[in-house]
Automatic annotation (TrEMBL):
SMART domains: HATPase_c, TPR. This is histidine kinase. The keyword Ligase does not apply. PANTHER family: NITRATE/NITRITE SENSOR PROTEIN NARX-RELATED, NITRATE_NITRITE SENSOR PROTEIN NARQ.
């Protein structure tokens, strides 16, 4: 039927109705997994959407592509199309759908273990969705944040975000199966912490759902298996191994191989605890073979670790295979993350270039209009020629000042970007190389059959524990290097600090710099900052050339919507009866442009104090 609809759609150059039909066919062919029809309809829909200039429809089509490639596990192509959809939705003013694309991009980054990138997109999405009260999407974002922090082993944060997700779930009429999924996620966190009694209580909450087995057999099997494993770890043998067997039978009948692998892992643990080594080894070996068949590296690693415990004779071979695969996985993940970074970088450069071209065009148009206006004024009002020149010079000076300020910020931003990139590189080297090698060394050491006196064996175990603590410290250091980076672009205070350092060295005087942390610099206009910068320059220039000062102090104070600047030196002072020099005139001129007040205190031999107050109206969030 979809093919027939596709054949019937006529595609003139500009026809919004045909575009809607094609977009619907594209979406439904994705749902029915008809790849041939999907690509045909999506390609024609995109061509027509571009001809019509329909940004919203272009974004929808990229969304379809992203979903299709995600289903096909082609993560880089999926990420690319979700990113394109996000940009187009933002251009179309559809911030809700743009936030949903951020969630999709975060999900993919989480799959690739780029948890920092996933966090950024999720918090951006939440910031958009909260005022809209989109509770379903907020539930999804907080739930994924819980999963991210679980992978980072920050379990309390993970639980907090899962509970935040449950708060938004209360606003939805249909909570199934989201509620049960959340209970399962929270139960797994407590399971990882070894708090199996609490884990069992959450699994029971989900399993107590009416008609759960009838409505979602897959979820029922997962919950049953997870609860049985916590019961095993909690030394509760009621209905074991029957619950493991039931979950395995359901998963096997549904053909969910990853679920079958996990069930067999848990059965292996059960038989190992019951000292039935043969059955435990059989289940572990079967899990390994299944994981190998579907190329599930995570489960292959788990199986190799389990086999090393159950088969001491061949443990060296298992551990060698574990180390080799773990390194390959880490290298592959790093290459994939680098690929995603390039996608983001190239997209940002494309956007920056477009903005630059647009800005240049605006300047060309503005320049043309100004030129025409100047010609008219020159012909019409010859007497005001000098005044016009002065206005033009002031305008150009203002633009130059702002440009210098922006260039200074950009220079500091590039320096900090370089530092941050180096921190990320060191973090990844620590995590992916050194930490993996330490872990492999500890695993190999742990399974050595050592004999000796009790004291030596205790020392052996103590060394293993110390090695594990070293691993933990390296992991924390790796996370800190990546997460606790200095943000950029750098602020006004940083620029002023640099100016003080340079001029104090030139003038060979000491300086103190105090600034109120409550000053909202990011909301203060750049032109104000330029004026302040040049006022401080004039003060420092006076200190170097005339004051013969040994000490210079600078303060920024925020008081009752007033920004107060205080400068003082301990130099020879000014003769206040003499006419003001060009430096003071420049300062007064800049203060006047900011609608501020200027106060000067100076006595010969007792230094100079300048106080400037500037009224500012700041719209607090």
């Amino acid at each position: 039927m979809l093919y027939r609809a596709f054949q019937l759609v006529k595609i003139p150059q500009k026809d919004s109705l045909s575009l809607s039909y094609l977009n619907d066919i594209s979406y439904h062919s994705y749902i029915t997994q008809d790849s041939v029809l999907f690509f045909k309809s999506s390609g024609k829909a995109m061509t027509l959407a571009k001809n019509l200039g329909d940004i919203q429809k272009q974004a929808d089509i990229h969304w379809n592509y992203g979903a299709y490639y995600l289903t096909d596990n082609n993560l880089d192509s999926s990420y690319y199309h979700y990113q394109k959809a996000k940009q187009l939705f933002e251009r179309a003013g559809n911030h809700f759908f743009a936030a949903r694309m951020r969630y999709n991009m975060a999900y993919i980054l989480g799959r690739l273990r780029d948890y920092t990138g996933a966090e950024v997109f999720l918090f951006q999405a939440i910031e958009t969705l909260e005022p809209m009260e989109k509770h379903k999407q907020l539930y999804q974002c907080y739930n994924l944040l819980g999963v991210v922090y679980e992978e980072l082993e920050e379990y309390q944060k993970s639980i907090n975000y899962h509970k935040e997700a449950l708060k938004h779930l209360k606003h939805l009429d249909f909570k199934f199966p989201f509620l049960q999924d959340s209970y399962n996620n929270i139960g797994l966190i407590y399971q990882k912490q070894g708090n199996h009694q609490t884990a069992i209580s959450y699994f029971n909450k989900a399993l107590d759902t009416k008609d759960l087995k009838k409505n979602d057999l897959f979820l029922y099997a997962r919950l049953l298996d997870n609860r049985a494993f916590s019961k095993l770890k909690n030394n509760e043998t009621t209905n074991l191994p029957q619950e493991f067997m039931e979950a395995l039978h359901i998963r096997d009948s549904m053909g969910t191989i990853p679920g079958v692998i996990m069930s067999r892992f848990h059965l292996s643990e059960f038989y190992a605890k019951a000292n039935d080594t043969a059955r435990a080894f059989y289940q572990a070996r079967t899990s390994y073979q299944l994981a190998h068949n579907i190329q599930n590296n995570r489960d292959i690693l788990l199986a190799l670790e389990l086999l090393a415990r159950l088969d001491p004779k061949n443990k060296d071979q298992y551990l060698q295979n574990y180390i080799a695969l773990n390194k390959r996985v880490a290298l592959k993940e790093r290459k994939t993350r680098n690929k995603f970074t390039r996608i983001q970088y190239e997209t940002d450069r494309y956007i920056e270039r477009n903005e630059q071209l647009s800005s240049e065009m605006n300047w060309i148009v503005a320049g043309g209009m100004v030129s025409v206006l100047l010609v008219i004024l020159l012909f019409g009002i010859h007497r005001q020629n000098s005044r016009n020149k002065l206005l033009k010079l002031e305008y150009e000076q203002q633009q130059a000042n702002e440009k210098i300020y922006r260039l200074t910020l950009q220079e500091q931003e590039k320096l900090q970007q370089g530092r941050n990139q180096e921190r990320i590189r060191i973090s990844e080297d620590l995590h992916d190389s050194i930490l993996s090698d330490l872990f492999a060394l500890r695993m190999g050491w742990a399974y050595l059959d050592l004999y000796g006196q009790t004291k030596e064996l205790q020392k052996h175990r103590s060394n293993l524990q110390e090695l594990q603590q070293i691993e933990k410290k390296i992991r924390e250091l790796s996370h800190d290097l990546k997460n606790k980076m200095i943000e950029y672009p750098m602020d006004f205070i940083f620029i002023v600090e640099g100016l003080l350092q340079k001029r104090s060295k030139l003038g060979k005087f000491n300086y103190t710099f105090v600034h109120d942390g409550n000053i909202p610099w990011e909301q203060i206009d750049n032109l104000i900052k330029v004026h302040l910068y040049h006022i401080i320059e004039e003060g420092l220039q006076n200190c170097i050339k005339h004051a013969q000062a040994s000490n210079f102090s600078l303060k920024f104070i925020w008081h009752e919507e007033q920004l107060i600047l205080k400068m003082a030196d301990d130099g020879i002072g000014l003769k206040t009866k003499r006419p003001a020099g060009i430096g003071l005139k420049n300062i007064k001129s800049r203060v006047k442009k900011m609608n501020g007040t200027f106060e000067l205190e100076s006595r010969h031999g007792q230094g100079t104090k300048i106080t400037i107050s500037i009224p500012l109206i700041i719209n607090r969030p």
